[in-house]
Amino acid sequence: MSDSKYSVLFMRDDRDVSRYRLSPFWLKMFVFSQVFLLLCAAGGIYMGVRGFRINAALQTEKKDLEQRLVDAEVRLERLGNMEKILESYDATELQSLLSAATTEAEHPEPREEINLNKIFTRADTRQVGVENMQAKLTGRKLTVSFELNNLQATKSMAGQADFIFLTKGGAAEDAETNKDDLSFQIQRFKRIQTTFLLPEGMERKDLFGLRLEIKGKDGDVVFAETYPFYHILAS
């Protein structure tokens, strides 16, 4: 009985009957292999589902970490900008500005309150970049030029730039500029230059800085930065 074998018959309509003799060992191996493959498939499905859930959890955690990193970078950039502004200020002018602010706090005048955060905080939505800001003052005529870069590779950028005068006394006054000079529609790069006059009653010794604000075609500010005159003003 130990040498007994199973006969396997294959019958087809268009062929003769084929007969094969199969040892019980190989039959058992075939059954065991099928069971093993079934278990492997079940294990694979389980591990796949488990891996999918773990991956989904990791993706959620990754997005949370990326958002926290972006928030941290924004806060760090703001601190860095404030540090650059403080480092760039001339000690005498900074003391003058602080003294003026202290005097105004002790003896307030009936005038519009100035939002210093709005004046000195840098804004940048990564849509445009500004480089090589330069200014030249001849009498009461101020000529300003800068390079404007489109940081969006897929589309052109259009908008309007404006300037605000900042005095050592902490006052802010809009510059009366030629809007045509400061309007733009660029694909990659444009050099902008414009000339305008100092406001009435404002002298060179009163000037502290010039703030540039760039708005997109929807009117929202996409870039804003304050430039101390002693950094951009040609002698």
Describe the structure.
This protein has about 240 residues and is α+β, with helices and mostly antiparallel strands. It contains 5 helices and 11 strands; from the N terminus they run E-E-H-H-H-E-E-E-E-E-H-E-E-E-E-H. The protein has helices at about 25-90, 90-105, 115-120, 180, 230, and strands at about 5-10, 15-20, 125, 130-140, 140-150, 155-165, 170-175, 185, 190-195, 205-215, 220-230. The strands form 3 sheets. Strands 3, 6, 7, 8, 10 and 11 form a 6-stranded antiparallel sheet that branches. Strands 4-5-9 form a 3-stranded antiparallel sheet. Strand 4 (about 130-140) and strand 5 (about 140-150) form a beta hairpin. The chain starts with 5 loop residues before the first strand and ends with a helix. The mean pLDDT is about 80.
| Tally of DSSP β-strands | 11
Which stretches are poorly predicted, pLDDT < 50 over at least 5 residues?
A: none
Number of alpha- plus pi-helical segments = 5
User: Helix-strand pattern, N to C?
Assistant: EEHHHEEEEEHEEEEH
Backbone structural class: alpha+beta
**Main β-sheet: number of strands, strand sense, barrel status?**
6 strands, antiparallel
Overall shape: rod-shaped
Percent strand: 35-45%
**Helix proportion of residues, in percent?**
40-55%
Work out the radius of gyration: 37 Å
Distance between the termini: 114 Å
Average pLDDT over all residues: 81
Write a concise synopsis of the structure shown:
With 235 residues, the protein is α+β, with helices and mostly antiparallel strands. It has helices at 24-88, 91-106, 116-120, 179-182, 229-232, and strands at residues 6-12, 15-22, 123-124, 128-138, 141-150, 157-167, 172-174, 183-186, 189-197, 207-216, 221-228. A hairpin with a 2-residue loop joins strand 1 (6-12) and strand 2 (15-22).
